[in-house]
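Write out structure tokens for Copper amine oxidase N-terminal domain-containing protein.
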Amino acid sequence: MKNKLLKYGIFIIVLFFAFQSVVNIASADDHYKGDRYYYPKYEKSDKNNYFEKFDKHDHDDDDDDYKWKGEYEQEGNYKNLQQNTVQPSYWNVWTRDTHISISNNLPVEEAKKVSFNLNGKTEKLLVFPSNGQLLVSGEKMAKLFGIKSKYYEQSRILELSNGQEELIVRAGTNAAYENMVKTPMPAKALSYEKTVYLPISVIANAFGYSVDWDEANETFILEQFY
């Protein structure tokens, strides 16, 4: 009888510790999906659930930034880039490269409304100079291009799409998701007027447009290159 009671007691203790282990694992898993860690590695996320979950939390941007030449120099780590040739940055070309210098030659040097011309249609949009780039409203540029846009206010994310082409940008970071691939932008996106402002080069080039400056008419000229 004593042996049976002993075996029964040992069985209860084993079950108790097994249950505790399961609870701890579940808790750790919940923590991993918390604010700090859940923000996408977009290619691993279920796109249909991604924004719904993202809007419920305030996430860190730490893993969503790319370092540029100037930032490496400030931190004394410029030697990390010496093996790569640092390319000049262009306000109208999205090189998708982090090894670039900051452009100081901008056609617009203060925030103001400027004319954009596409296929003979002209529209004035607000332009912000920022870190050697010119930022424009992603939603207004999307309207000009005739492509879809959707803004997620709580997470400050702008989703742009045209057929199979997709661009997703979050204000406060210099990372964009271009067709599900995390790609560096030449400047951080900006949150303003309840939307996201991003570099002209990024939105134009991502959807197949070139952008040039007509000095005589103070107008940006947009042309489709494919």
